[in-house]
Amino acid sequence: MRIAVLGHVRQRIAQPFAGGMESHCWHLAAGLQARGHDVVLFASGDSDPRFTIDPVLPTHYEATFPWAEHRGSAPLIAHLDGGYDAACDRIAAGGFDVVHNNSLHRFPIEPGRTATVPTVTSLHVPPYDALHWFVRASAVPTHRLTVTSARQLTAWWPEGAPPEASVLHNGIDPALWPFVAQGDGSAAWCGRITPNKGPHLAAQAARIAGVPLTLFGPVEDPDYWHAEVEPLLGGDIRYGGHLGGAALAAAIGQASVFVFTPCWDEPFGLVAVEAMACGLPVAALDMGAAREIVGEAGCFATAGDVPGLADAILTAMALPRDVARKRVERSFTHDLWLDRCEALYRDVATARTPLAA
């Protein structure tokens, strides 16, 4: 099939990944390409040159609108609207069989556009106001909507999801996250360093538990980093930097427990699955889809309960490491995820609406 993968343009689609959305989009394009599909990545022009890239914007937008300046910014909205409007026009004229839309933008899901090129949209976020009502109006036979967990399906459609919507769990390549039979007694945390990811809670809990902790990930919110996280560093609490690929997998795999601290309605938790593939049991705050994804491979604390999270760290460290790995192999592999994507593409490509006739 000829497939347009339409990405979010806040960050580059390239390693080291800024977050789960960038990782999802990169592995989707790479996986489909490896399966013989003709893939064009519509993303920022500074994304990974291994792909055929049709730039939505010349560079990712945080290069122009950094964290402190882009929230609710009218110039940014106009910048994005112009880029996505033109990109959608090029997709419509590009002879594509299907679009896999990861953009979180309203233009690609307009019924007139999805009638022209059948579309699968992956929703990686809870139902926030800027997109919520556009999504709800977009469910037509030539548009399939996926969410990453049953929790998010209910959040988007509390009255019951339409037939065009379904759960599509994210997947990883377990070979990229090698199983390690024994940890070194430490804890690891990984993610974007922002308040809604809660690294300060991980540091506080690890200190109470008396377990060394290393934080990994990009500092997305510098004000939060300086005020809430940096003062907690020192002794057994350290920052390991923003690593990518094999270096991150090796660093995570050395630890004995992964600390997962969502402070929002977490849609999935890709970082937890990656750590589980390495054999790490998970100590998690019970927010969003955390319990659904981690399951028997972890222990949980009530949202915001730092002492409870400290107890969960110590309890989780005693869980067998193969439990975590087997859960990933059973439910969250790259091949299973791509199989389901291809099934959605075949399904939506055969659909027709009056608009398309």
TrEMBL record:
Any one GO MF annotation of this record: glycosyltransferase activity
InterPro entries: Glyco_trans_4-like_N
One Pfam family in the UniProt entry: Glyco_transf_4
Record's keyword annotation contains Transmembrane: no
Keyword Translocase included in the entry's annotation: no
Residue intervals of the Glycosyltransferase subfamily 4-like N-terminal domain: 19-175
Keyword line: Transferase
Protein name: Glycosyltransferase
